[in-house]
Amino acid sequence: MVFWTSYMTLYNWLKNKFFLFWVYNDMSYDWCKFNFHTFSFLIASGLAYPFYYTREMVDIWPKERGGFCTWNNSYRQCLKFMIENIELQFYNCLRGYSGWFRRFGLQYYVALWFADNLGMMSNCNEAFNSLEAISPIFAESV
Fold it and tell me: Is-contact 2 49, C-beta < 8 A?
């Protein structure tokens, strides 16, 4: 939720705020989109990764002897532990980020690029690529 909310908000804001770059200044739209997309993706994934890492700590990490969980199976207590014991430059919050980016992040990045190419991140969707036309629930009403 943190990733999608921050990514979509920031990307659409940048795209709407700086439309004059490719409309009036003759800059390539793909170059502008690459800059907006990369900036938004890095900010959003940097904000959301600590929450993903917290989930991993609680759900996947091995338990202590006897099956006892340090954080009592609570995401909130684990996140609180991470914040209270934060290291300089947020190393414990962003540990493993490069591995996550190689495994999942690049796929998300490319998928979001294609979604924008299909017009799914536009304020004025045409009927053929709007979410209402894509949804099978509304396929009969087109």
Answer: no
SS3 labels along 16-58: HHCCHHHHCCCCCHHHHHHHHHHHHHHHHHHHHHHHHHHHHHH
- CA Rg value for the chain: 20
The predicted-structure confidence for 64-82, as pLDDT tens digits, reads as follows 887 777 888 888 888 888 8
The reported pTM is 0.71
Non-local (6+) Cβ contacts of 58 within 8 A are 69, 71, 73, 74, 75, 78
* Eight-class DSSP state of 101: I
Angstrom distance (rounded) from CA 118 to CA 116? 5
